[in-house]
């Protein structure tokens, strides 16, 4: 019997890579898709990876519990990956209630649907390194106390603890992956890596002259989404559910990440980057650095792509896209 996976957030970056990975493992893949007036473009990432025709999409919304119950009942999944969220930190100050409802309470909606209709299914929750926020330890592990610094991070912290609570209260096989930043050519254009690689490609092709950025002293532990979705799957293959930090263990400033992107096409970032306070955040997460030793020891997982390799791949993809 083929295994069946249900993925919320299937139209996002991770949903697309995870679908490709699960299909390669022989799964039947089902995904939750939001109703949109722009039918036909929502699956662009799945199309980019060549898997759009191989997944089944069902209409639903993380804010509509009844739709999730119906979808879980119809799909009878063995594994559920809850990736859907309002995931852009900067937007979470402008839409704090929506972020709480979807990124936070939406997790309970999904857990309740699983508890009612597929209690044997294994559940993955997309938690985030943003929960560490104002860091309490130099290297953040599963044992580091949390200190969220945005409405997004506060909502994710709720999602994390409700997942732990459903595991402990109802015996669900529910795991929480505390993933550090991961990127790819399919990253949303508003996130800093993709904004930079798209901006560099535009400048190189003569379509733009400058790139406006906010706090380029911030440091992040950046990995590749293709590697990170494998860690999600590995968590659900374990006998016991648990929580895992997924990271590279290397941290880099936005400035140095930017330098890699400009240097790849022979440009000097200092001639093009303009600091624009409009992109500063009301409260910043200055530095994140993950300790992935538990994921390495228990899951056998390790990041395989360096930041240099990933940024070069992203710049090349943006150059090709813009030329086309
Ligand atoms: P993303 O590209 O922004 O994708 C978010 C997905 O959620 C999209 O498919 C989006 O659908 C869907 N969604 C948003 N609101 C929804 C709603 N009300 N109902 C149903 N679906 C909804 O995010 P990502 O980078 O793939 O990240 C996946 C998950 O991991 C998110 O939960 C994110 O918060 C978390 N995370 C990401 C990172 C990272 O560095 N990428 C790190 C840690 C945790 P539309 O296509 O219709 O907008
Ligand atoms: O910002 C700084 C910004 O928006 C990274 C999400 O996937 O990862 C992501 O959240 C850093 C911040 O990602 C600009 O201030 C400077 O310090 O790419 P980002 P994020 O906020 O770290 C976590 C793990 C998630 O869970 C989230 O879902 O870069 N920065 N200048 C800028 N950021 C943006 N977006 N744009 C700028 O112009």
Tell me about this structure.
Strands 3-2-1-4-5-6-11 form a seven-stranded parallel sheet, with helices on both faces. A two-stranded parallel sheet has the order 7-10. The chain has a two-stranded parallel ribbon with strand order 8-13. The radius of gyration is 19 Å and the shape is globular. The protein has helices at 13-24, 44-48, 65-75, 89-94, 96-117, 151-170, 192-204, 225-236, 254-264, 293-299, 307-323, and strands spanning 4-8, 28-33, 55-59, 79-82, 122-128, 173-179, 182-183, 211-213, 219-220, 223-224, 243-246, 252-253, 273-275. It folds into two domains: 4-182 and 223-246, NAD(P)-binding Rossmann-like Domain (Rossmann fold), CATH 3.40.50.720; 188-220 and 250-287 and 306-323, UDP-galactose 4-epimerase, domain 1 (Alpha-Beta Complex). The protein has 324 residues and is of the alpha/beta class. Helix 2 links the parallel strand 2 (28-33) and strand 3 (55-59).
Question: Percent range for helical residues?
Answer: 40-55%
Figure out the total of helices.
11
The CATH topology assignment of the largest domain is Rossmann fold
Radius of gyration: 19 Å
Known CATH architecture of the largest domain? 3-Layer(aba) Sandwich
């Amino acid at each position: 019997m083929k295994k069946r996976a249900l993925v919320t957030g299937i139209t996002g970056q991770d949903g697309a890579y995870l679908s490709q990975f699960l299909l390669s493992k022989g799964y039947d893949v089902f995904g939750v898709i939001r109703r949109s007036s722009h039918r036909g473009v929502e699956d662009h990432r799945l199309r980019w990876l060549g898997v759009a025709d191989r997944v089944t999409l069902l209409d639903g919304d993380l804010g509509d519990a009844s739709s999730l119950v119906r979808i879980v009942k119809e799909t009878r999944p063995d594994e559920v990956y809850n990736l859907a969220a309002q995931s852009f930190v900067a937007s979470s100050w402008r839409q704090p209630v929506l972020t709480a409802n979807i990124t936070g309470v939406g997790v309970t909606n999904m857990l309740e649907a699983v508890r009612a209709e597929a209690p044997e299914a294994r559940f993955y929750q997309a938690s985030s390194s943003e929960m560490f926020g104002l860091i309490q330890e130099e290297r953040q592990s599963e044992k580091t106390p949390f200190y969220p610094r945005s409405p997004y991070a506060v909502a994710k912290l709720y999602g994390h603890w409700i997942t732990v609570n459903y595991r402990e209260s109802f015996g669900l096989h529910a795991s929480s992956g505390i993933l550090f930043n991961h990127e790819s050519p399919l990253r949303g254009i508003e996130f800093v890596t993709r904004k930079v690689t798209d901006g560099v490609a535009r400048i190189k092709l003569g379509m733009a002259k400058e790139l406006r950025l906010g706090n380029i002293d911030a440091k992040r532990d950046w990995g590749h989404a293709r590697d990170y979705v494998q860690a999600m799957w590995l968590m659900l293959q374990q006998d016991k559910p648990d929580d895992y930090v997924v990271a590279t263990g290397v941290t880099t400033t936005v400035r140095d990440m930017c330098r890699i992107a400009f240097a790849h096409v022979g440009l000097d970032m200092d001639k093009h980057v303009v600091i624009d306070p409009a992109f500063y955040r009301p409260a910043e997460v200055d530095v994140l650095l993950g300790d992935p030793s538990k994921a390495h020891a228990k899951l056998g997982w390790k990041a395989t792509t360096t930041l240099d390799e990933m940024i070069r791949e992203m710049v090349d993809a943006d150059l090709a896209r813009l030329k086309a």
